[in-house]
Amino acid sequence: MDYEFDFLEILRNADLLLRGIWLTVALWVIAFVLALVVGLFLGIARGSPRKILNWPATAYIEVFRNTPVLVQLVWFYYAFPVLTGIQTTPFLAASLGLCLNTSAYCAEIYRGGLQSITAGQWEAGRALGMSYWTLMRRIILPQAIRRMIPAFTNRGVELAKMTSIASVITVHELMHEARTLSTQTFLPLETFTVVAVIYFFLIYPGTVVASIIERRLNARGA
Amino acid sequence: MGYDWDFSPVWRNAGPLLEGLGNTLWLSGWSIAAGLALGLVLALLRLSRSRVLSVLALAVIEFYRNTPPLLHFFWYFFGLPILLNISMSPFGAALLALSVQSGAFFAEIFRAGIISIEKGQWEAGRALGMTEARLMRRIILPQAVRRMIPPLMERSFELVKTTALAATLAYGELLYRAMVIASQSFRPLETYSAVAVIFFLVLFLASLGMRRVEAVLHRGRR
After folding, report:
1. Which of B62, B82, B192 sits opposite A189 (nearest CB)?
2. Is the complex ipTM higher than 0.95?
3. Do A178 and B75 touch (CB under 8 A)?
4. Of A16, A77, A146, B185, which is the most buried if we count CB atoms within 10 A?
5. What is the CATH number of domain B25-172?
6. What is the pLDDT of residues A3-29, one digit of tens each?
């Protein structure tokens, strides 16, 4: 191993990587926020006894959980426009694909959390004359969401790793900028090592937070 | 929607696609096997009494769990050959990236399974004069393995989905074959939809199989 490392060249291109980080974060925020909203409705539909709600939600969740996310992104970028005639930008296709994928996983988290609330809570709410949505908003969700937080945090970590796949459909996020930089500088070893470290520092805090929350909830016996 | 569906390019290329599926499964199989072996080693290091080894294993595990898989594909394909002055095939790089990363996830499953076995089992084994290695092999692992099987299978399905990333290194797995067919036939919608269906069938059937295994394990426990 007599290879001479040249990390200075990478530092000189820090602005390129910073722009990439910015887009990675933007992609993560957009996809995660939307997925949390879409996932809630899907999760409720998935847990519903009514078949007309339950079956489509189940099909959606199973399709997105049982296909590779790269296939989904490629599909939304190359196949979706053929079907609809709407030309999507890479960023839009990536946000859409990542959001729909994550929403399927979030739906299962919501469903599990909602099922963990005892029937007595529903009955008490109904006895007070609350409507379904009031009950959900005031009684059920506040209790259930606390139990779901560790699972959502883990999902956030998974999504952060998934954003790198957007580089394949030419979204100029961190991974894409890394590939550009590695070919421009002829320094793939240094570039990908530095970018691995950047990703680690972006993502690891999420993992730490998840385990802290989990430990606290366990200690409280929630 | 006035789109004329034409699946004939897919049927005409059924041979290459099936071969691609074969390569996907080939890569998955080897990566799972290597990942399990590496994961077991990492778990044992993590549980070892030597603080240095334990911290080292923890660092490897946390690093690989908190960085994107696509980055590892590129690091092993473009970076590692420079470091070691070797040449690397797409299959080799994909195998390394997949097995090291899933090894980190497998290690945590192994560790959780091993520490879930009650202390009394260790004490009883020691009281009988068993060596640590024999105790682990004869008493602890046979009990722990049953608890590990469902999460290990789930992780393996994740790995199968991640093999699609090998398309970015032009390894001839299912998605890569589809990309070639889509660009030659100008039929991305049909081709990528077919690939999504193939992946779905494989993974969905596998997850149904897993539910069977879980049921059997559950029955055996009582």
Report:
1. B82
2. no
3. no
4. A77
5. 1.10.3720.10
6. 888 888 888 899 999 999 999 999 999
